[in-house]
Design brief:
With about 290 residues, the chain is of the alpha/beta class. The chain has 2 domains: about 110 residues, Ribosomal protein L30/S12 (60s Ribosomal Protein L30, Chain: A); about 160 residues, SPOUT methyltransferase, trefoil knot domain (Alpha/beta knot, 3-Layer(aba) Sandwich). Helices cover about 35% and strands about 20% of the residues. α6 runs parallel beside α7 and α6 packs parallel to α10. It comes from Intrasporangium calvum (strain ATCC 23552 / DSM 43043 / JCM 3097 / NBRC 12989 / NCIMB 10167 / NRRL B-3866 / 7 KIP). Pfam families: MRM3-like_sub_bind (PF22435), SpoU_methylase (PF00588).
């Protein structure tokens, strides 16, 4: 098979690069149905999750000699480039100045891809199995928090993450970056709060809502069935609609001056209580 030759771009004012930078804007992402992913590890995880980039932009001068992420061997940048080239992905080589024009992260490693935007309509997600576990993130404003929740959701084996009344979109490059690419490994959807509640009710899902305004600790409920854990916006928490619909309202004990945790941390604490209980149940111990 004859593979196409790589394109090369050296000028930061090239029209292709202007279009690439435009994908940082939500309106452009929604119009094109595309977003951008920067970083060796993030692109590799997206590829492993079945996402094939439309185009890969490469600046070899920025490549790391090791290609490692911590103690985990993930291969090298040249190996990833060859993998994508063999898959028929368009490869565009950039000069360092041109790459600096499109890069959006500190310490870039010379790889940036254009991929189809993520997220599906809520109605297309299904609640399967007696132990389905979901996360509802209502009106989260900061992309970093949404991305951090996706990393936790992936690690905890969450079946789906739903953005209720979303303020930021799933394709926001900072969501992708903060998720370390796990955005592509966890099913995600968006909907209004009322749509989300109807969808959960249709799936017979127990709704556990976090709020400081309750006496029930997050360790005092059973998370071993079909469960969705809901967290709310950084400023205001969950709204009245979620509180009214909740099967359980739970709080995380606080022993300092603050009355709440960062929303992504709160989601992690409660999700891992669900993980602990489920592991205990499988081992025969049941919830503590």
């Amino acid at each position: 098979m004859n593979l196409p030759r790589d394109l090369s771009v050296s000028s930061p004012s090239n029209p292709r690069l202007k279009a690439l930078v435009a994908l940082r804007r939500r309106r452009v992402r929604e119009e094109t149905g595309q977003t951008i992913v920067e970083g060796h590890e993030e692109i590799r995880l997206a590829l492993d999750a079945g996402v094939t980039p439309r185009t890969l932009y490469v600046a070899e001068e920025l490549f790391s000699p090791s290609g490692r992420a911590g103690s985990q061997e993930i291969g090298t940048q040249p190996e990833l480039v060859e993998r994508l080239r063999a898959a028929g992905v368009e490869i565009v080589r950039l000069s360092p100045a041109a790459y600096a024009k499109v890069s959006y992260r500190e310490g870039p490693d010379g790889l940036l891809a254009v991929v189809d935007d993520v997220g599906v309509p809520l109605a297309s997600l299904t609640v399967d199995g007696p132990s389905w576990l979901g996360l509802v993130a209502q009106r989260i404003e900061k992309p970093g928090n949404l991305g951090a929740m996706l990393r936790t959701a992936d690690a905890a084996g969450v079946d789906a993450v739903v953005a209720a009344d979303p303020v930021t979109d799933w394709g926001n490059p900072n969501v992708v970056r903060a998720s370390k690419g796990t955005l592509f490994a966890v099913p995600v959807a968006s909907g209004t709060t009322s749509e989300t509640l109807a969808w959960l009710a249709h799936g017979a899902v127990t709704l556990v809502v976090t709020t400081p305004e309750t006496d029930l600790l997050h360790t005092e409920v059973d998370y071993t069935g079909r469960v969705a854990i809901a967290v709310g916006s950084e400023k205001h928490g969950v709204d009245d609609a979620l509180l009214v619909a909740a099967t359980h309202r739970v709080r995380i004990p606080m022993h300092g001056r603050a009355n709440s945790l960062n929303v992504s941390v709160a989601a992690a604490v409660v999700l891992y209580e669900a993980v602990r209980q489920r592991a205990s149940r499988l081992g025969g111990g049941g919830p503590a």
